[in-house]
Specification:
Layout: H1 21-25, E1 30-36, E2 42-48, H2 53-64, E3 72-74, E4 77-79, E5 96-100
Length: 101
């Protein structure tokens, strides 16, 4: 019995990526980001463009004891946890961006 073409597996010659999420994040360029905390304190953190907002929150928590429940704002718009820096087209490897935490 032959499967209909809509559900037949494709012969895709592209190899699948075997890199983990952290390894994939490391293939992107770096970005220095200035984080302005609610108390006015500013910290610069070097991030990979493939890093997720959640991972950056973890870095801020580990280095500066910033709570996880903060909201990152970029030009007044929230940066949601499941997204990465790549999801914000106004960022690039040459940018120095100030985020409000």
């Amino acid at each position: 019995m032959e499967l209909p073409s809509a559900i037949r597996p494709r012969n895709n010659s592209r190899p699948c990526s075997t890199l983990g999420h952290d390894e994939e994040a490391n293939i992107h360029g770096s970005l220095d980001i200035r984080f302005k905390l609610l108390d006015g304190e500013i910290h610069v953190v070097k991030c990979k463009l493939g890093e997720t907002i959640f991972n950056i929150k973890k870095t801020l928590h580990d280095q500066f004891h910033v709570p996880f429940d903060v909201v990152f704002l970029l030009n007044g718009s929230p940066m949601m946890d499941p997204l990465s820096l790549n999801d914000f087209p106004q960022l690039n490897a040459e940018s120095l961006v100030e985020l409000q935490v």
